[in-house]
Design a protein that fits this description.
This is Trp operon repressor. By secondary structure, the protein is an alpha/beta fold. It has helices at about 15-30, 50-55, 70-80, 80-85, 110-120, 135-140, 160-180; strands at about 5-10, 30-35, 60-65, 95-100, 125, 150. The chain has one domain (about 5-180): Flavodoxin domain (Rossmann fold), CATH 3.40.50.
Length: about 180
C-alpha cells in the first residue's frame, strides 16, 4: 500500500478538519498515512521533515488562505527543499491541495494555485477534483476543481459542510487510487 503524507498548517482548525477527513479516508483505503504539520501547536502534532517528503508515495498539502497565498509557515518549509529539488526526489509523485478561507471570495482558488507551485516545481503530478464529484456542482460553500476548500465564515468555524466533507473524501480517494497505481 502507498505511503501518503498529509501535510498542513491550520490557524483556526478548518484546515486541520480537512486534513483529518483526508487522513481518515486514506486510512480507510489501507494507505500508510503520515499526518504532519509545519509547526508544533498541539501535543500530538508531528512536524514535517524533508525525509517525510522523500519517503512518501503521494502528498496532500493544505494551508489556510493568506491573501490568496499559502501561510508563511508552509512557504518557509518549501524554501528549504532545494536540495531534494536538485536531486529530483519528488518527481512523478501524485499530489493534491486543500485550503480554507473566511469568505466565498476570500482567495481559496488563488491559494490552491499558490499551493500547487512548489509541487509543480518539484515535478509532482498535480490532481484536482474532477466534475464527476457531484458536490462540486452543487456546493454553496467550499469546493473547486483545483482542490478541496472550506469557507469558514467570519466566525472562523472549522465545521465542514457535508459537501466539503464529500469533496475532501473524493480528493483523498483519487490520491490513493493514483498513488497505488504508480507503486
Amino acid at each position: 500500500m502507498p505511503t501518503i503524507l498529509v501535510l498542513y498548517h491550520s490557524s483556526h482548525g478548518s484546515v486541520s478538519a480537512m486534513a483529518d477527513e483526508i487522513y481518515e479516508t486514506l486510512n480507510a483505503h489501507g494507505a500508510d498515512v503520515k499526518l504532519r504539520t509545519f509547526v508544533k501547536k498541539q501535543p500530538h502534532d508531528v512536524v514535517v521533515t524533508k525525509q517525510d517528503l522523500i519517503e512518501c508515495d503521494g502528498l496532500a498539502f493544505g494551508s489556510p488562505t493568506r491573501f490568496g497565498m499559502m501561510a508563511a509557515q508552509a512557504k518557509t518549509f518549501w524554501e528549504t527543499t532545494s536540495d531534494i529539488w536538485l536531486k529530483g526526489q519528488l518527481i512523478d509523485k501524485p499530489a493534491c491541495v486543500f485550503s480554507s478561507s473566511s469568505s466565498m471570495h476570500g482567495g481559496n482558488e488563488a491559494t490552491l494555485l499558490n499551493l500547487s507551485l512548489p509541487l509543480l516545481h518539484h515535478g509532482m503530478m498535480l490532481m484536482g477534483v474532477p466534475y464527476d464529484v457531484p458536490e462540486l456542482l452543487s456546493t454553496q460553500s467550499g469546493g473547486t476543481p483545483y482542490g478541496a476548500s472550506h469557507v469558514a465564515g467570519m466566525e472562523n468555524s472549522p465545521e465542514l459542510t457535508e459537501a466539503e466533507i464529500k469533496i475532501c473524501r473524493a480528493l483523498a480517494t483519487r490520491l490513493f487510487d493514483i498513488s497505488k497505481k504508480l507503486l
